[in-house]
Amino acid sequence: MRNTSNPSQKFVWQQPYNEMNILITNCFINSPSGTETYVYELAIELHNRGHHVEIFTLSMGDLAKSLIENGIHVCTDLKKLKKKPDCIHAHHNIVTLKAAHFFKKTPIVYFIHDRTHFLDYPFRHANILQYVAVDYNCKERYQENGFKNDDIEIIYNWANLSRFKLRKTISAIPRKALAFSNYMSQTNIFPSIKEACLSQGIEIDLIGSGNGNATTTPENILGQYDIIFGKAKAAIEAMATGAAVIVCDFRGLAEIVTPENMLHYRKYNFGMKLMTNKIQTDLIVREIKKYDAENILKVSNFIRKEADFLPIVTQLENTYSRVIKEYNNNKRGKYKLNYYNYLTIIKITFRMIMKIKL
Questions:
Q1: Whether the predicted pLDDT of 20 surpasses 70
Q2: pLDDT tier, 17 (very low <50, low <70, confident <90, very high otherwise)
Q3: What's the whole-model pTM score?
Q4: How far are the Cα atoms of 2, 61, 113, 250 from residue 356, in angstroms, in the given order?
Q5: What percent of the residues of the chain are helix, what percent strand, and what percent coil, each to the nearest 5?
Q6: Residue ranges per domain, the chain?
Q7: Which of 17, 46, 220, 240 is most exposed by smallest CB count within 10 Å?
Q8: Could you write out the DSSP letters of every residue in 62-110?
């Protein structure tokens, strides 16, 4: 099916703020996956908008080197930061705790990206003026730990539309598929997907760190495939290119994204909570048979409108600017660091150290 729809109006960013000094924390800046890709794209865009951006992490790899080449200072020592931040965009409780203790008079926006990972256990501190979840599943994690609904903002994941272009034509019949995940391998999950695809005459490839062929340029690859198996941000980026997406990963199998379920799937970040079925060949075949070029285009247009990177960065700028003003007006967070919260994060730190050593 040819894409004849008019592209959404191009987002034109205008400088709404004076330069802000933003510190982003993330446990790892090594390879293109999860929050590391999120931080990479966000840092460069904020830098391009005239803000001073630095990143504090515990581990630097190739992705950190690329950020440095793009003018972003990345370090593993808070004492080596070039400027005192006006606001901290915080991922991961361990590095957030370090940054909060070092910058005792800096407001924090704290994010949860994962419902179950120990690094995303909610951190409490008086300097955190906004708690953010990337979807309703992560919001529920806050609520399970005593946070009130009105104190949590949802800022969804994005697709960088300057990278992920919509293909000119969506094939009427699927011929090529891609399992796009760092968690799949030739012996884990992928065999069932491969069997299902081959039974329908569809070629299938696997890309990801679990297969030893992770990519830093998925925008050059996704447009070659009619169906993509993946989740979360990878799924969003795939839909932005006009691919059909069947949501699945190591947690299980959901459905192919359709105009009927796309709002609900967006609410839960095309992720964990949706994957309630087992990864088995017959169920995957069932989803493949739902392939419909017209529906795929509708989903892609929806994603390209709702998950556009640039307006979401502006939303983040609004949040930073607001909490800076609130902090300067002596507002402090209602969820103070207590002994239980502190002890839990210390245990998490010990757990991670032991995991690295093993």
A1: yes
A2: low
A3: 0.90
A4: 49, 15, 21, 22
A5: 40, 20, 40
A6: 21-158+310-357, 176-307
A7: 220
A8: HHHHHHHHTT-EEES-GGG-SS--SEEEEESHHHHHHHHHH-TT--EEE
* Gap between the Cα atoms of 243 and 151, Å rounded: 36
Instruction: Identify the CA nearest to 245 among candidates 209, 255, 253.
Output: 255
Task: Read off the pLDDT of each residue in 33-46 and give the average, rounded to a whole number.
Answer: 95
pLDDT score at 214? 86
The values of phi and psi at residue 171, to 5°, are -60, 140
Query: With pLDDT > 90 as the criterion, what percentage of the chain qualifies?
Result: 85
Considering the segment(s) 21-158+310-357 as one domain, its CATH architecture is 3-Layer(aba) Sandwich (3.40)
Query: In this structure, which amino acid lies at residue 321?
Result: S
172's tokens: 């009427």
Identify the band that residue 7 occupies on the pLDDT scale cut at 50, 70 and 90.
Answer: very low
In the DSSP assignment, the letter for residue 166 is P
Encoded amino acid at 14, one letter:
Q
Residue 5 banded pLDDT, cuts 50, 70, 90: low
State the Cα–Cα distance between residues 78 and 81, nearest whole angstrom: 6
User: What is the DSSP-derived secondary structure letter of residue 207?
Assistant: E
Give the span between the Cα atoms of 125 and 333, in whole angstroms: 7
pLDDT at 348: 80
CATH number of 176-307: 3.40.50.2000
Distance from chain centroid for Cα 238: 13
Q: Where would I find the beta strands (DSSP E) of the chain? A: 21-25, 28-29, 52-56, 59-60, 73-75, 87-91, 108-112, 128-133, 152-154, 176-180, 203-207, 227-230, 244-249, 252-256
pLDDT-derived band of residue 18, with 50, 70 and 90 as boundaries?
A: confident
Cα gap 228→124, rounded to integer Å: 38
Measured distance between the N- and C-terminal CA atoms of the chain, rounded to whole angstroms:
51
Token pair belonging to 309 = 């990177």
